[in-house]
Structures are given as C-alpha cells and as structure tokens.
UniProtKB/TrEMBL annotation:
One of its GO terms (biological process) is regulation of DNA-templated transcription. It comes from Pedobacter cryoconitis. GO terms for molecular function: phosphorelay response regulator activity; transcription cis-regulatory region binding. The modification 4-aspartylphosphate is found at D52. Keywords: DNA-binding, Phosphoprotein, Two-component regulatory system. Residues 125-222 form the OmpR/PhoB-type domain. This is DNA-binding response OmpR family regulator. It comes from the Bacteria. SUPFAM superfamilies: CheY-like. GO terms for cellular component: cytosol; protein-DNA complex. InterPro entries: CheY-like_superfamily, OmpR/PhoB-type_DNA-bd, Sig_transdc_resp-reg_receiver, WalR-like, WH-like_DNA-bd_sf. Residues 125-222 bind DNA.
Length: 223
C-alpha cells in the first residue's frame, strides 16, 4: 500500500482528499503543519509527499528543502494556491517533482502521484562521467578536479535526460513532458535558461557541447 505524507491545514479540504485517497487504497498520514510533518518523514519515510505551501510552523517550501537535504528520491508534489511564476520556479528549484494549482481534482492528483512513483521504480543510473566531470544525479552535484558544485534538482534531471540520449536530439516537447509534465508554464524560453545554466556549469571542458537544434530540441555531444 502506497504511504502518502499529506500536509494541508485547510481541514475541510484535507478531510475530503484524505477520504478519497484512502477509498482508492492509499494510506494517508495527514498533518496540518510542517514541523510535525517533517518529524513524521524522518521517523516513517513515506512513498510520496503531497504538501501545501502555506502551512504553519514550517511552510511547504522550507519543509521540502529540509527533506531534500537528506532525501533526493522521495517524490514531492506541491498542491497550493501559490502559483505565481516565482513560486513555481522556487518549488521546482528546491526539488519538487510536480506543482499543482488549487483547486485540483483527486483524479488528477492520483495520476500525477502514480506517474512519479513509476519513475521512481525505474532502474536509472545515478553516477556519470561527462568528459572531465563527474556527475552524481542523486546528490545533484558536478565535480571537476575534486571541486564539487551543487546544482538544482531540475537542472540535474535535465542533464541526466540529455546524457541518457547522448548524441541524439532530445525534443523540447519531450523534455517538458518528461520533466515538468505540462508545457504551459515552462515555455521554450524558460527551458533555454536551464540549458544555458548547464552550459555554464560544463564550460571548463571544451569537449562537451549542448547544441540547440533550432525549432526541435537539444543534443549533448562529448567529442
């Protein structure tokens, strides 16, 4: 049975969501504040975390940040009314796997949870050599000559996807669908920003190139 850590301080909403998920066969551990939720996470590691941003004592962003300090795999889905561009970027930057706007349907939440859990079940390499760099996709680090740089979760996932299709064109639409699950927020221009960051991180090795295939996508080449 899938164990869900659900953090929501709107009691009526929390009751409805919890009841529906339990009816569907999930085990739901509901908390109304981030501090208690984090204590539960450390004591009983759940399969997935679903949380609001605006909760007391330890808000959702801070809770997700604390989780990601020690756990880089458990899926985190934000469900919140905080949907300004800066909020969504912050959520993904912290390491969220998905970001849903309130109000949301239980059916959509379940689909998104199951998508994340299926990804987690895949056997995916976690350590890569990229030219002169060493990339750890679990701890989201790039190392060069023993010097380690921390990158964001989303940057790490994008780099891993490019590596898994090295010397092949990866379509823009496939990246957005796989890593962000919807294209409306992360426009092509936003994706270009992430690509530019990866290029800057890898610039010390001239053998590494991330090519922009105009109108199609990107290709990672190591000469």
């Amino acid at each position: 049975m899938t164990d869900i850590l659900f953090v929501e301080d709107e009691m009526d909403l929390a009751q409805i969501v919890s009841d529906c998920l339990e009816f569907k066969g999930y085990s739901v551990n509901h908390y109304t504040n981030g501090a208690d939720a984090f204590q539960h996470f450390t004591n009983v590691k759940p399969d997935i975390v679903v949380l609001d941003v605006m909760v007391p004592e330890l808000d959702g962003f801070d809770l997700a940040q604390k989780i990601r300090e020690t756990d880089h795999q458990t899926p985190i889905i934000f469900v919140t009314a905080r949907v300004q561009t800066a909020d969504v970027i912050k959520g993904f930057g912290i390491g969220a796997n998905d970001y849903m706007k309130k109000p949301y349907s239980i059916e959509e939440l379940i689909v998104r949870m199951e998508a994340q859990l299926k990804r987690l079940d895949k056997i995916i390499p976690t350590k890569y050599v990229i030219g002169n760099y060493f990339f750890d996709a679990i701890y989201n680090t790039l190392a060069l000559n023993g010097k380690e740089k921390k990158i964001s979760y989303r940057e790490s996932e994008l780099l891993r996807m490019l590596l898994e299709h090295q010397n092949q064109i990866v379509k823009r639409s496939d990246i957005l669908s796989e890593l962000w699950e919807y294209e409306s927020f992360f426009t092509g221009r936003s994706l270009d920003v992430f690509i530019s960051r990866l290029r800057s991180y890898l610039k010390s090795d001239p053998k590494i190139e991330i090519l922009n295939i105009r109108g199609v996508g990107y290709m990672l080449i190591i000469h």
